[in-house]
Structures are given as structure tokens and as C-alpha cells.
Design brief:
By secondary structure, the chain is of the alpha/beta class. Helix content is 32%, strand content 21%. Strands 7-1-8-9 form a four-stranded antiparallel β-sheet, covered by helices on one side. Strands 4-3-5 form a three-stranded parallel β-sheet, with helices on both faces. The relative contact order is 0.26.
Length: 230
Amino acid sequence: MKTKMSKRFKDIENLTKDITILTLEEAVDLLKKCPPVKFDETMEISMRLGVDPKKADQQVRGTVALPHGTGKKIKVLVLAKSDKEKEAKESGADYFGNDEIIEKIKGGWTDFDVMIATPDMMREVGKLGKILGPRGLMPTPKAGTVTTDITKATKEIKAGKIEFKIDKNCLLNNSVGKISFSKEMLVENIKKLVEAVIKAKPSAAKGVYIKSMHLATTMGPGLKIDVQAI
């Protein structure tokens, strides 16, 4: 039996039926014109990169502070001991502690978005790899989440600092804000992320680096972006 298309999807189809490729500004405009849903949709960007993720010298990973954040309230967990645990409490972290928290995670608790750990906690954190790894929650020095400066790391993450990294399919996917953001805010966030990804290009990567780019919202269409126009 043929599934009946909703009025919202018909309207989206009419808006995008003759579209092939757009500038970044045109794509943001079009996504904001799509019929709304009952929640504030997340806008996401997907980039296919011309690297070989199987090779250690072609990994793409880094962090970037989005000028306007992602619009999402980030839950930060800090694993630290003694005076650093006190600093974590004062820094604005949502959760903090050490052994008790580690036992809680071993039991399956992962109700946080980012984990920050002091270097002296990493021996114990390493034992949580099977739980944290698949969820992308393992702290790393490169992402700035293994540090003794708890206050700085927590405030940066709360302000909009995000991590980006390529997956096994050469794709890099990141949230860049909410549909309720102004066009200017979204464009600035996206350009900042693209700039950071370009700076993270491995020296071993040859040929076209950013092969394709698409922009989409949670319940909206995926639009192809003209990479050369950015």
C-alpha cells in the first residue's frame, strides 16, 4: 500500500523540487522557510572528505568554538580528585566526582554530553573505554578534555566549543545551531566549523579535500552546498 505523504512533506517537496546545489546562505534561507514542527530543530552539516580514515596520518579531528554555540544545553561531567573536584563544582559542571561516578558509569549511566578528566584520572577512565568509546564520550588531550584547567575547559564547552572528527566512511557530521537562530548566526557558525576542518587537513591528504557538503535540519530536507562558494 502506498504511504500517503503529509501536507508538510508535500510543501517541502514543492520548495526543493527544482533545487540541485545552493550557496550556504541560500541553503540556510530555504531550510528556515520549510514548514515548522513543534520543536526547535537542530541544523546539521555533513561533509565528505577526501582522506583515507584507515591511515593514521590521514585522521581529521579537532575542536572549534562556534561563535553562537549549538543552542543545546551541554551536560558536562568532570572526573577529578581533591582540590580539582572543588574547582569542578565552582566551574559550572553539571556532575563531578571520582570513584563513585566511575562506578555509576560502569553500571550504565551516561547521562552527560561531555566528560572532562584530569590526567591523574585517566588510568581509571581508560577502563571505561567500552562504554565511553562507542558513544564518543572518551576524553582526549587533543579535544582539550584531559586537562588540569577544569574551569577553562568547562566554560569553553558550555559556551559552544565542539569536537569534530571523521568516521570510517569519510564523513564528518556536526550540529551547527538551531533553526530558531538567525540566518547570520547559522552562517557564521558553519563558516567557523568549515574553516577549522580545512585547517585540520592532514599533510598526507592529496586531491580534493572537501568532496561534498550537505545541510539539513532534524525533520527537514538535506540540501547540497556549493563548497567552492564558501
